TrEMBL record:
GO function terms (MF aspect): lyase activity
Family indicated by similarity: Belongs to the HMG-CoA lyase family.
NCBIfam families per the UniProt record, alphabetical: PRK05692.1
PANTHER family: HYDROXYMETHYLGLUTARYL-COA LYASE
Lineage: Bacteria, Bacillati, Bacillota, Bacilli, Bacillales
Source species of the chain: Fictibacillus norfolkensis
Superkingdom assignment: Bacteria
PROSITE patterns from the UniProt entry: PYR_CT (PS50991)
SUPFAM superfamilies for the chain: Aldolase
Ranges where the Pyruvate carboxyltransferase domain occurs: 7-273
Keywords: Lyase, Metal-binding
Name by which UniProt lists this protein: Hydroxymethylglutaryl-CoA lyase
Length: 301
């Protein structure tokens, strides 16, 4: 079996994981959570986002988080529009994430624009960021299924990826936003994308574990040549604009699976579990990852 020897995990818990959390987490606790995750070995992470506090109040402390957590690693900040990008640039970050939904309906319910309108708006913003030397990551939602439109056409995903590549993005994060994809679909889509995209464009898979398929989908994606995955400590997450989306695949479950397969991630599982244990009491629902549950159930001597 032809699998990579090393895989990069992008920790998305502090941003994607917490954005839909009902309890407002104090900035000091987010900063400590991020510090623990970095200590576990993550070198790429979504820290926060510059979005409207009215719509995503959990992210209203973005500037405070950035002031405390920036270092020389890849620290991504989500910035969905010109205003968000301006704030991100002013904050000193060098790695900016944008997003679009392949599904028109999802995109309209999310940001009140069609997919085409979003792409047209993003094009000059991305090109300007690239001229100024920023790393740009494009997050592509509803790449497999949409909660409103159903199955998404692979060719529509490919077209958006190629358009983003033409704009100059450095990375594409292709997401199963509502956790409906199966391993066959993942293998087929990522095989298609790997065939058509330039080898210099980083290609990342992003899975939600809504139906318990995320680890199987990661395994299928590995076979298609993917060696970058978004994961979230504790399986935190969901999407406020995607009915039915549960948490992201848990970082600790992915680290365990890959290590058992002899694939290196550079992440220390014990320290990662410390981070999950730290954030757990502050959440509105329990951490349900397999590795975390095992840790809780280990008899104390």
């Amino acid at each position: 079996m032809d699998l990579p020897e090393r895989v990069t995990l992008i920790e998305v818990g502090p941003r994607d994981g917490l954005q839909n959390e009902k309890n407002l987490i104090p900035a000091k606790n987010k900063i400590e959570f991020i510090s623990l995750l970095k200590n576990a070995g993550f070198q790429e992470m979504e820290l926060t986002s510059f979005v409207s506090p009215k719509w995503v109040p959990q992210m209203q402390d973005a500037s405070v988080i950035i002031d405390s957590c920036l270092d020389d690693q890849r620290n991504f900040v989500l910035a969905p529009n010109q205003k968000g990008i301006d704030l991100a640039v002013e904050s000193g970050v060098k790695h900016i994430a944008v997003f679009v939904g392949v599904s028109d309906t999802f995109n309209k319910k999310n940001i009140n624009k069609s997919t085409e309108e979003s792409m047209n708006e993003l094009r000059p913003l991305i090109q300007d960021l690239k001229r100024r030397g920023f790393f740009v990551r494009a997050c592509i939602s509803t790449s497999f299924y949409c909660p409103f439109e159903g199955k998404v056409d692979e060719q529509d995903v490919l077209k958006i990826c190629l358009d983003f590549e033409e704009m100059g993005v450095d990375e594409l994060s292709v997401a199963d936003t509502i956790g409906m994809a199966n391993p066959s679909e993942c293998f087929e889509l990522f095989t298609l994308l790997k065939h058509h995209l330039r080898g210099t464009t980083l290609l990342t898979a992003h899975f939600h574990d809504t139906r318990g398929m995320a680890l199987a989908n990661i395994f299928a994606s590995l076979q298609a040549g993917i060696d970058r995955f978004d994961t979230s400590a504790g399986g935190l997450g969901g999407c406020p604009f995607a009915p039915g989306a549960s948490g992201n695949v848990a970082s600790e479950d992915v680290v365990y699976m890959l290590s058992q397969m002899g694939i290196s991630t550079g992440i220390h599982l014990d320290k990662l579990l410390e981070a999950a244990a730290y954030i757990s009491p502050l959440l509105s629902k329990p951490v349900s990852s397999k590795q975390f549950q095992l840790l809780k159930n280990v008899p104390q001597h």
